[in-house]
Amino acid sequence: MEATTLAVLILLPAVGVFAYAGWFEYRRWKQEGPKSYGLTYDPETNTTHVGALAEGEDGFDPEEFEPVNEQQDDTDAVAEQCAADTEDHAEQGRNADDRRKDPDRRNRQGT
């Protein structure tokens, strides 16, 4: 196989994807007009992605974001839940230890 044929075969998928994206962006632009794109933040998943911004909206600036202040309430709730779960597991462990130490306990409780 010649080098040029091999190069075309390797580059063809990338060119196809680029042309596909360009075509759909052109169709969107013809229908909706120009859009401004920027970085947007999704607090539910704590991720950012590039997307179309609403008219008059500024993009997300990571340098101005302080996650400690934004998620403090969530962190406190998670910490409280973890503490409650730890207490439950500790209680279950103590009960299991009691049953192992005194296997006849069930017989005495029934009488």
Structure, briefly:
The protein has 111 residues and is mainly alpha-helical. It is built from four helices and two strands; from the N terminus they run αββααα.
Task: Give the SSE layout.
Elements: H1 3-32, E1 37-42, E2 47-52, H2 67-70, H3 72-101, H4 105-110
Antiparallel strand pairs: 1-2
Instruction: Give the structural class.
Output: mainly alpha
Note the gap between the termini.
Answer: 89 Å
Low-confidence stretches: none
Counting structural domains, the number is 3
- What is the succession of H and E elements? HEEHHH
Lateral arrangement of strands in the main beta sheet: 1-2
Q: What count of helical segments does DSSP give?
A: 4
* Molecular shape: elongated
Strand content: 5-15%
Instruction: Give the fraction of residues assigned to helices.
Output: 55-70%
Q: What number is the mean pLDDT?
A: 77
The biggest sheet, with number of strands, parallel, antiparallel or mixed sense and barrel status, is: 2 strands, antiparallel
- Any idea what the radius of gyration is? 30 Å
